[in-house]
Amino acid sequence: MALHQFLAFGVAAMILIAIPGPSVMFVVGRALAHGRRTALASVVGNALGLYTVAALVALGLGRLLATSMIAFTAVKIAGAGYLVFLGIQAIRKRRRLHETTEATEGDRGFWRSAAEGYLVGVANPKGFIIFASVLPQFIDPGAGSATAQMLLLGLVAFGVALVSDSLWAVLASAVRSWFSRSPRRTAAVQTVGGVSMIGLGISIATTGAKG
After folding, report:
1. C-alpha to C-alpha distance for 7 and 89, rounded to whole angstroms
2. Which of 24, 44, 90, 169 could form a disulfide with 33 if both were Cys (CB 3.0 to 4.6 A apart)?
3. pLDDT tens column, 116-130
4. Shortest CA distance to 38 belongs to which of 169, 148, 162?
5. CA 73, CA 155: separation in Å to the nearest integer?
6. Which residues contact 125 (CB under 8 A, 6 or more apart)?
7. Is the predicted pLDDT of residue 156 greater than 60, yes or no?
8. Is 50 exceeded by the pLDDT of residue 105?
9. What is the chain written as a DSSP string?
10. More confident site: 167 or 28
11. Between 24 and 154, the higher pLDDT residue
12. Which residue has the higher pLDDT, 175 or 52?
């Protein structure tokens, strides 16, 4: 593959991923609700979910979701429902956060948080649409296997997602540290994080069939 393919898709991925959207909202919500460690673990999981989407598209599943209303709706509702569940959990635990901030982050564990992020990333139907419609445009038919090219370019999106979402996680957790000095402010920021995830879930559930 030519270098310009990677660079061109890298720019497109930056625009599609780095600009605030569902993944950013999810990561910020996790940072506000649970802190930096949980948010960064969620970033890793979410990026792996994104790459899974790219791999599924490369293997042909993207076409199914782009053309099947039933499959698209099923994935969309599953992802939306899980986001709403996470948001409700964050709000329910808001009053305990000030006393157990460090314990809460440690008890969740890296792998649990990463798994939650992965489920959100792989269940986001917009990822399938993005990779199914944008990624193929950067494939060179004369450069060998299209599937292999899509898998390689998917790694570019994976890297962009890791860097971009990590920055959002760090920034949001820095704001959270100020709120954590007051029980009332801590409960408020926990609620904001939970509400943002619930709102994101509702937004995904009510998005148009291909949007």
Report:
1. 40
2. 90
3. 889 888 877 667 766
4. 169
5. 27
6. 65, 72, 75, 76, 79, 204
7. yes
8. no
9. --HHHHHHHHHHHHHHHHSSSHHHHHHHHHHHHH-HHHHHHHHHHHHHHHHHHHHHHHTTHHHHHHH-HHHHHHHHHHHHHHHHHHHHHHHHTGGGTTTTHHHHHHHH-HHHHHHHHHHHHHH-HHHHHHHHHTGGGG--GGGS-HHHHHHHHHHHHHHHHHHHHHHHHHHHHHHHHHHTTSHHHHHHHHHHHHHHHHHHHHHHHHS-TT-
10. 167
11. 154
12. 52
* 124 Ramachandran zone, left/alpha/beta (phi>0; psi -120 to 50): beta
Structure tokens at 147: 């599937």
pLDDT tens, residue by residue, 184-206:
766 666 677 677 768 767 876 77
Token look-up 């995904």 returns 204
- The terminus-to-terminus CA distance of the chain in angstroms comes to 31
Based on the number of CB atoms within 10 Å of its own CB, is 74 exposed (0-12), middle (13-18) or buried (19 or more)?
Answer: middle
Least confident of 27-41, 138-152, 192-206: 192-206
* Most distant CA pair in the chain, distance: 61
Residue 21 burial class via C-beta count within 10 angstroms: exposed 0-12, middle 13-18, buried 19 and up: middle
Report d(CA 47, CA 155) in Å as an integer. 10
